[in-house]
Write a structure and sequence with these properties.
Number of strands: 8
Radius of gyration: 20 Å
Number of helices: 1
CATH topology: Lipocalin
CATH class: Mainly Beta
Order of helices and strands: HEEEEEEEE
Shape: globular
Distance between the termini: 62 Å
Largest sheet: 8 strands, antiparallel, barrel
Strand content: over 45%
Structural class: mainly beta
Length: 162
């Protein structure tokens, strides 16, 4: 009787674990599809000319197929960017476990407002309604290090306009 009770408990735990795993995935590039509003905070640690605190916001559009575009307004050491809304774009890849990575290439109209490409890693939550990111470096500048994170929430475009 005790053995049956243990098997019953294990079966319940197995069902609960399967349900929890299913709630976390599977994800794909299609999980990120639409517009997200991000809050960006942190600091650049190296190289020396770029060191300092950053804070900003971004509006990002994921196409559900592995491509994103965005505009951002990031303040660096208390100094506003030259361009009020700097565009950028890049590829993203979502893993089945709802983790992923992306590369953002800034595309400023004023070259003085440029920055290196950034590699980010992320975790998707709330069935694709939230994304949390961390900057992990730059493929162009090996000495670039940062402690920059962001949280994005899925939004609906106003009047259908991106």
């Amino acid at each position: 009787m005790k053995v049956l009770r243990i098997f019953a408990q294990l079966a319940v735990l197995g069902t609960a674990a399967t349900g929890a795993a299913h709630a976390l995935g599977p994800c794909s590039n299609a999980t990120l599809d639409g517009n997200y509003a991000f809050t960006i905070t942190g600091q650049i640690l190296a190289p020396a000319p770029a060191v300092g605190l950053v804070a900003g916001v971004a509006k990002t559009h994921f196409d559900g197929q592995g491509n994103m575009k965005q505009i951002d307004h990031v303040v660096h050491n208390g100094v506003a960017p030259i361009e009020e809304w700097r565009p950028g774009s890049g590829p993203y890849q979502v893993n089945a476990d709802c983790t992923g990575s992306m590369t953002i290439t800034a595309e400023p109209t004023d070259p003085a407002d440029g920055s290196p490409e950034l590699n980010l890693f992320f975790v998707i939550g709330d069935n694709g309604k939230e994304i949390r990111t961390v900057v992990s470096g730059s493929p162009q500048v090996s000495s670039f290090t940062a402690a920059i994170t962001s949280i994005g929430t899925k939004i609906e475009p106003l009047d259908g306009v991106w």
